[in-house]
Fold this sequence. Notes:
Blueprint: E1 9-12, E2 21-27, H1 31-38, E3 39-41, E4 55-60, E5 69-77, E6 80-86, H2 90-101, E7 105-106, H3 109-116, H4 120-128, H5 135-145, H6 148-161, H7 165-177, H8 179-183, E8 189-194, H9 201-209, E9 227-233, E10 236-242, H10 253-265, E11 270-276, H11 282-291, E12 296-300, E13 316-318, H12 327-338, H13 353-367, H14 371-382
Parallel strand pairs: 1-7, 8-10, 8-11, 11-12, 12-13
Antiparallel strand pairs: 1-2, 2-6, 3-4, 4-5, 5-6, 9-10
Helix pairs in contact: 3-4, 4-5, 6-7, 6-14, 7-13, 13-14
Bound molecules: guanosine-5'-diphosphate.
Amino acid sequence: MPGSTTPTTAAVLTPPARGAIATVSVRGAEAVALADRFFSSLGKISVCNAPIGRILVGHWQAEGEAVGEELVVAKLADDVVEIHCHGGVQASQRILKHLAASGCQVESWQSRTTSQHSDAIVAEAKLELPTAVTSQAALHLLDQANGALSREIATIGKLVEEANFEVAAQKLDHLLSLAPFGRHLTQPWLIVIAGPPNVGKSSLLNKIVGYDRAIVLDMPGTTRDVLHATTALDGWPVQFSDTAGIRVSDDEIEQAGIAKAKAALKTADLAIVMHDATNLKPDELDQSLKELPSALHVVNKIDLADALRLPDSGEMLATSAVTGQGVPDLISSIVSHLIPRVPQTDDPIPFTSRQVDGLRQLWEHVKQHQADAALQSIQLLLNA
Ligand code: GDP
């Protein structure tokens, strides 16, 4: 397109799935002229002459095509036009084809988002937001999309300029302490349910998730693969794995459960170690508590135990995967183990490994009072 320095681009902003409406955004010097080439409004107002923000209803058709489409066009700025057409893939792809044939560059919504934001962290938050699986995760990502983390990093930059390295380091310590939480705004927390065969792992998983994801079998040690189920607890995304039953001799069963839970904890965020209320062995319980201090220990099948005596430590939870007794308390314990302190609205939270790596590097420079290097790290963090 002669005369324009940067190319005019078009991107579909809505997901490639069934939906009532799809939105194509056209941005650049030729956006309005391109829309006028294909679109005629019912009110005979051209996009060029329409006031900014006016919604125009009309007909979109390319020369030589037998049928066109009724749709809505809005000019959002002198160089931005949005076309709202029928949902689904076909209609928006046809519009893109027309625009591309007229010299418009087609780009993904991701590259549109990245190019639209000079602040790299804001762009990263906007890229993650559409895939946030729970409202809690989305709310915290939205805060970062609105600049919470970028503002905090800019504040740290000011502190560095004033040679106030101590307060800058405190702020960085706090930000880095939130990194594990931030990682889970885009990935679920991983929870492993471990314990001997037939203790009720699958049943408990089904009870928590609310549907029969795991197959419940009466036969101990029945070989199964590890089963996964993703759900939200208190609005936080979590993925459970039910470790498969393992065939071991009777006296090894509890040991094997502990070993499995230990191994699983290397990759998981939390292990739930289950014990059978109908077959409790106090020594093994003690050992399990000692060897897995960071796990949640659950005695299941309490509906079958007449008078259940749990260790006094208060570290054990009692459940029935059949009646549901104790399951709400277990869910509360899981949530408070995973997220001991929920950040406030508007709190700055790093949520990508790029940000965390950058913040660690910045921390090193701040600790060594290297102002120039620290300011350079800040530049990199904000303008990747
Ligand atoms: P897993 O091998 O540890 O996954 O155990 P399952 O969930 O397959 O359960 C084994 C058997 O114990 C099944 O018959 C379940 O119905 C039963 N079961 C599991 N949890 C409970 C419980 O809390 N109470 C009772 N009464 N039975 C349970």
